[in-house]
Design brief:
Number of helices: 13
Helix content: 40-55%
Number of strands: 19
Shape: globular
Strand order of the largest sheet: 6-5-4-10-9-8-7
Strand content: 25-35%
Length: 448
């Protein structure tokens, strides 16, 4: 049994962060009331409460410990009046992740998440960098790995960043144009035919809409830049018992997955990946559903089979779409029809709104086109003893291969589906992860 070790001080900040609404909510209520004396009193009350909660958090941090017993099981003990102990067996770890954002790196801390097999809630610990690496090597040791440095993640991120930058510049030009004052005849016409509120909207809403779109694209660009920084210096390895990857420029990230607990592999295709012939591959284990792919696979190479020998991709064949439900087009078709109606009406009543309304109309039209791809391609197949499926979600076509033997299949039918001999098939994996394939023909589910 190892000696008891303490958590990093960031664990106290993690506890304190969960209580932030306790002392911020009264401040918001007083601030909207514009009662400055009450606001001053609420500030003092919030500071006193913050100090009390800080003392409690530091007391919990000081009294809590963790260690490994003789069998290698992890024992976590939380102490503050109540005794809360948790044990995680060494053989029950399905996956673990080690996350080191920039602030954590400055403080020498690491956030390690442990995903027990068959459970939906991970165990999150804040440890020092050395303790996190040591604990990961004890729970999921890396033995004789074969390292790979797949290329393509940087190229894919730069392509997405470039497209986002061009769209942001175009929207910025539109916003600047909309910010100019309208001609007097347009204002006079608005006042003549509409109320004062409608006239205000005809002048300022298009500009606000354009600038909001610019802000949205700028935030999306920042998110893409963050993803591009995370795939820098990316390394993937595979052993007989696990898969893993690590990388990151500003935020360092490491993931280890136990092979016997793998749920599914998800090869995601989109218009950009089809153009570049690079596909991100997401692999899950337990309840670990990472936001980053395990690796980026270049189509036609052997990397996918080397890391996942048992994988089978869905066949390049179209499923039976006879009498298939039009539910695929419902989430984007209704907003598209509404945007088209508003655009047609604005052409005669509020011409200044026509151009901004074309932007959401184009977005929903693109989503309808993506739904058409799902209508023609979504389905379930059994290949080489592996259950495979295709599922369209927004602009991504998920090509999934089920890898876990404990798989639950649920078929749900509406009265229309019974008449059309179709069903919605839901695949449930350990860790409460689910995939739903819509309107599948019963004739394609003979393997059930």
């Amino acid at each position: 049994m190892t000696a008891e070790k303490r958590f990093h001080p960031f664990a106290a900040l993690h506890i304190l962060r969960k209580t932030i609404l306790v002392y911020l909510l009264p401040l918001v209520q007083v601030l909207f009331g514009r009662n400055w004396d009450a606001l001053r009193a609420a500030l003092l009350q919030a500071l006193a409460l913050f100090a009390l909660l800080s003392l409690i958090s530091w007391a919990v941090l000081h009294a809590s410990r963790w260690q490994l017993d003789d069998k290698g099981d992890l024992l976590v003990r939380w102490r503050l009046g109540l005794r809360l102990d948790r044990t995680l067996r060494v053989g029950a770890v399905a996956a673990l992740t080690i996350d080191r954002p920039l602030l954590h790196r400055f403080a020498g801390a690491s956030r390690i998440k442990l995903y027990p097999a068959g459970q939906s809630r991970p165990m999150t610990l804040y440890l020092t960098r050395q303790d996190a690496a040591w604990l990961a090597d004890r729970l999921l040791p890396v033995e004789q790995p074969s390292f790979h440095k797949p290329r393509g993640g940087e190229k894919l991120a730069l392509a997405v960043l470039g497209a986002n930058g061009l769209s942001t510049l175009a929207l910025l030009a539109l916003a600047v144009r909309q910010s100019r004052s309208y001609a007097p005849d347009a204002q006079t016409l608005a006042f003549a035919h509409l109320s004062q509120l409608a006239a205000f909207a005809s002048r300022w809403l298009p500009m606000s809409t354009a600038w909001l779109l610019v802000l949205g694209c700028a935030l999306a660009g920042a998110s893409f830049a963050r993803s591009g920084a995370q795939v820098a210096h990316y390394i993937v390895w595979g052993t007989d018992t696990q898969l893993g990857s690590r990388g990151g420029l500003l935020r360092q990230y490491e993931m280890r997955l136990c092979r016997r607990e793998l749920n599914y592999a998800d090869v995601r295709r989109s218009p950009i990946t089809w153009a570049l012939h690079y596909c991100p591959v997401f692999v899950t284990a337990g309840s670990c559903k990472p936001e980053l792919p395990l690796f980026v696979w270049r189509e036609g190479t052997d990397l996918l089979q080397e890391l996942l020998p048992d994988i089978a991709l869905p066949p390049d064949a179209a499923p039976d779409i006879c009498r298939r439900s039009l539910i695929f087009f419902l989430p984007s078709g209704i907003p598209l029809g509404l945007c088209l109606l508003l655009t047609a009406v604005s052409r005669y009543t509020l011409p200044a709104l026509t151009v901004p309304l074309l932007i959401p109309t184009g977005v929903f039209a693109a989503l309808c086109a993506a739904a058409g791809v799902g209508y023609r391609r979504e389905g379930v197949w059994l290949r080489n003893g592996q259950l495979t499926l295709r599922r369209q979600h927004r602009f991504h076509l998920h090509c999934v291969c089920a890898l876990h033997p404990d798989l639950c299949l649920t078929a749900a039918q509406s009265p229309w589906a019974v008449a059309a001999q179709r069903t919605n098939l839901t695949l449930s994996f350990p860790g409460r992860l689910r995939f739903k394939v819509r309107s599948v023909a019963w004739s394609e589910l003979e393997f059930m």
